[in-house]
Amino acid sequence: MLSLDEEVRLYTTNAEREKYSLLATLFGIIVALDFLERAYVRDSITAAEYSPACTRLLSQYMTMLKLVKDSIPSIEDFMTRFRLDTPAALHRIKVGVPATVEHSSEAGPETGKWIAETTQNFITFMDALKLRLRAKDQLHPILQELVTGYARFKGSKEWEGRSRMVGWLITLNGMKASEELTEEQSRQVCELLVTNYIPSNR
């Protein structure tokens, strides 16, 4: 007969123990991200405090997701399974970049260093497309750097292609690591960059 005072073990092997430890870490990251998003919306923290913290949590989330991918089919399934009510975190995960990047930042002067870095990211991404790199894990990090860099500039909110570029970032973020853009999608992104995205001229 099962005693109510007896400890219930979730695992019987070291492998199972490690799996539940990783799931618990992922749970904690999502909860922390949700608190961070809510704190930023309420002006409880500044953009300077929010951005690096959010970037770090998103990076940790991506790392953990790779480690537990065999246990959870999707982040939505994970939240349902463990009864996580964290809509702010879910939105940020789907976007893949901090709110300061998604909605653009107006802080700080435009500097030569920013222009050089953003232009280099622009060239790197264009070269990747020309070399026919199409996989999410090849393109997403470069595009993330590009959009993040451009968001530093004053007036970037007014750039007519910014919302479309963020949209492509979200599209890539929602793909599996091995999934690839189609030739048509690649052509559309390339056309968007060439016609609208010359940061050094802004």
Structure description:
This protein is mainly α and 202 residues long. The protein is built from nine helices and no strands. The protein has helices at 14-41, 47-68, 75-81, 87-95, 99-102, 112-130, 136-150, 162-173, 183-196. It starts with 13 loop residues before the first helix and ends in a 6-residue tail after the last helix.
Supply database-style keywords.
mainly alpha; 202 residues
Quickly count the helices: 9
Mean pLDDT: 82
Structural class: mainly alpha
- How far apart are the first and last residues' alpha carbons, in Å? 74 Å
How are the elements arranged and paired?
Blueprint: H1 14-41, H2 47-68, H3 75-81, H4 87-95, H5 99-102, H6 112-130, H7 136-150, H8 162-173, H9 183-196
Helix pairs in contact: 1-2, 1-4, 6-7, 7-8
What's the quick description here?
The protein has nine helices and no strands. By secondary structure, it is mainly α.
